[in-house]
Amino acid sequence: MALNFLRYGPWLVLTLFLVPLVAGGIGTLLPAFGYLPALGGVNFSLDPWRALAAYPGVWDAVFRSLATGLAAAFLSFALVMGGLTFFHDSRWMGRLRAVLAPILAVPHAALAVGLVFVLSPSGWLVRMASPGFTGWDRPPDVALAPDPHGVSLVLALVIKEIPYLLLVSLAALERLPTARSVDIGRSLGYSGPVSWLKLVMPQLAGRIRLPVYAVIAFSVSTVDMAIILTATPTPTLGVLILRWMREADLSFQFVAAAGAVLQVGVVLAAVLIWRIGEVVSRFLLKAWLQRGGRNLFPGAIILAAVPTGIVSLLGGLGLVGLLIWSFAGRWRFPDAVPGRWSLENWVDRFDMIADPLAATLSLATASTVAAAILAIVGLEAETRFGRGQRTMALILLPLILPEVAFLFGFQVFLVGLHADGSWGGVIWAHLLFVLPYTYLTLAGPYRGLDPRYARAAACLGASPARVFWSVRLPLLLRPLLIAMAVGFAVSVGSYLPTVFAGAGRVTTLTTEAVTLSSGGDRRLIGVVGVLQAGLPFLAFALAWAIPRLVRWRRFGVGLGHD
Amino acid sequence: MRHSRTVRHWIVLCLWLIGTAIPFGQVASAEDQALDWDRALEKARGQTVYWNAWGGDDSINAYVDWVGQRVKEDYGVTLVHVKVGDISETVRRILAEKAAGRDSGGSVDLMWINGENFKAMKDNGLLFGPFADALPNRELIDTQENPAILRDFTVPTDGYESPWGGAKLIFVYDTARLANPPRDAGALLAYATANPGRVTYPAPPNFLGTTFLKQVLYELVEDPSELLSPAGQNFDAVTAPLWDYLSALHPTLWREGRDYPATEDDLIGLLDDGSVDIALAFNPAKASNAIEQDRLVDTARTYVPDAGSIGNTHYVAIPFNASAKEGAAIVANFLLSPEAQARKQDPRIWGDPTVLSMSRLDDTARALFDDLPRGVATLSPEELGRTLPEPHPTWMTRIEEVWLRRYGA
Q: Do B259 and A332 touch (CB under 8 A)?
């Protein structure tokens, strides 16, 4: 019975998952080709596409999406690989992980605002240097953040993606014979970093390919970060789509739908470009590998470490900036710190924040637990019956498809079920994003787990269920908890899914933050941003602490395999 | 073969999903329904009213909370403020409900609305009504004295929305940095030319940005009355002076017009930082409020162009499929009570001007308004000057289009 359930488990997971996607996709695709009778569109036509193509600056926006997204993905990937090359065996790596986790957990919008607090012409860096060094008593009239070229957007994306890629890399590395490979390289006269780069990196790159694609898809189609960090006349495609959807003239809904379909194409194009780059660089790297160089050029370590350092510093300053703004009474330019400090942002406004806080917490907990169970069902079935891997890859669709592509259609579907505005509907919508990230983070370690553990246990007479509960699950506890923490952070940061499925009745910290950001009180944004970052931070702290507690109880101190 | 069966299941599922999309085809019409006030009072007790209203301002949110307490006490109606970033989100939500065939039991009972969004909902049959004329407190508005209230951006309201507040464009400046602010469009251009980078406005379609464009257009156009009927063949000729003006103004703007503040509050922040010298707001009490909240330097003051400034009315409306129409109507009526209107006009609470006619109020009610203080930076009704009417929405739609093509994305 249990076995049967598990055999069909992947189909159950997929159905739960694909129904809203397919419904949402249809609900977006039909209007993109002119069909939305509620708005008088009863004939299929290409008019929405003509209107889209004629919209001022739309191709610039497409190019900007592609360029910023790919630049951000490449930089984060390169910096993570560079950092690992030199510091993979450093005992600092473990600590770095603890420092980066909270940045990973900060919702995108909060991080973007934090970055504006630091980098804008009236931001913290200028304030610290003014008027002492600069002589400015007014902010300089230059565009730093937001900027017209998308530089600050790339920067913010890199800050956000480095910790994610680093975490999945570290999780994948645990299942790779890293130390042995490097030792072999060393014994052949290669330096440590070169050994890692030539022997471990290619294996690692293969294992984290899907997370990298997710990074590309996200970077190309991000909306909330792009709104905050691009200048109004130079938006990305995602921003344009949202603008069309918000247009009071309802005929723009057709253009928005066409834009959402185009966005899918842009994401696919970006992944394709990356893939081509991958093939080309493999060809080039093979030549480099065969040349047999034992050392890297001098200064490579600086090139690998310094940009990561600067980027982390900016991210950190942004977070501190949020914290300071949340305690600011009055903070006028060019004061380096608030002229008056105050608790009233926290105390007087706590009533306003208590409900969204509770809602955020419940939604994130429910969707994370559900996602963990579903991910394990899928992976365990795959491990036991050895198939379904290809089919399960379908649940990664929401990461490749831009959110806007199916959320409008999904909303219509939920309304049809009378499930919009219900907790179940919102948890379902969150699950569409929480599950893929959880699954993605967990799949590598799950598949990479040495099958000999299970085989040994089976030889000793353990049933498949016992193997799962007593061998696989304990061994995978750490990656599982990290995957859950990632899912938790995704849920906390979800904006569009909450808005669409929640009928606007479900208010979370994130919807509150975005609503407030149109009102512009930097102090309140600080409060909500700090809380938003605090929740996932807590989740990561738990993911860090629980395996240690469990291992301590199970084996006693010092017997765990690390 | 299990596989082919699965494939078949998927096909069935997809067909079913397409089936769920078919109700798109059934266009429901919101039939006119009259409102019987005594029955409404009875039915409303115990109803929960979901009010979708912009939630970006603390003081407004607090005011809405207070309205909730009062209607609970007096009418047993539970009011839930659904905070939205932009009411057009709600327009789309109701559209989605209509698309799904949900003609009753909708998720929105009341919405804060005006202008283009009202026109869009009215044109697409998404509104319940007419109900506004059946509200008892409607008597307190003298439409002879204030006929503007019957037209929302020149579109007849026809009782499909009930007024609850006014807005008027004002300019804000810091007296410590600027002694004599420019009081007409020409002077503004001269100031910007002499002080590059110190003037800006929010980018359309932000409502404050479009209001600024309308203001300039009114001041430059030869015959303002043309703006009150829909834009047609005359569009290019009428708006030509506006584009000439903007071509001269833009190179002198903050960041040379390569970026714009996103919102009114964004712009107030720029003024506070000293990045710009002049800000705009669509509420006469805005500057006083911002000073009160420590978000604006206390030497800031406001002014209105010599020609007067654009003003409009904002309303509440009930969607065609609202679940609690009676409760929503009772809230709309309460919003028009002297108690609620006076509290709203109190600058310590919100500072939004009333829509009631003082001549229709009794002495106690009028005293509520007479006793109100005025904020330090708020102009008196006389100083606020003439109110220029909103042009027909078609003007704005086309101006936004051209603006976008010339200066936007």
A: no
